[in-house]
Amino acid sequence: MDNIKRFNSFAEFYPYYLSEHRNSTCRRLHFVGTSLVIFILVLAIGNGAWWMLLVLPLAGYSFAWVGHFFFEKNRPATFKHPLYSLLGDFVMYRDMMLGRVAF
Fold first, then answer.
1. Whole-angstrom Cα distance, residue 78 to residue 34?
2. Do residues 78 and 85 touch, judged by C-beta distance below 8 A?
3. 86 and 10 in contact (C-beta within 8 Å)?
4. Per-domain residue ranges of the chain
């Protein structure tokens, strides 16, 4: 039996995504990881150091997964909804910066 919840749009997925990030430490770790991803991406493009792009998944996911496994105590949505989850990381990052989601 397939236990993967289906979403018809990102707008439908995002409330679920936020419900999987109730723990403030988990959200903060996501924020650190996403900040590192943005920093590395800008650095790689600015310096033409394309090899740095290889560390993007490690930079982003290592912090997020520590947040999920040790603080949130759930499995990252990335495992079942990889594209929506990646977009969710950046939307939650923006929402945290704008004060819509608490640090």
1. 14
2. yes
3. no
4. 23-97
- How many angstroms from the chain centroid is the CA of residue 57? 10
Cβ atoms of 18 and 92 within 8 Å: the answer is: yes
Report whether pLDDT(1) > 70.
no
Separation of alpha carbons 56 and 28, rounded Å: 18
Q: Using one digit for the tens of pLDDT, what is the confidence trace for 2-59?
A: 567 899 999 999 999 999 999 999 999 999 999 999 999 999 999 999 999 999 999 9
In the block, residue with structure tokens 């924020």: 31
CA pair distance 23, 92, nearest whole angstrom: 13
21 within 8 A of 29, measured Cβ to Cβ: no
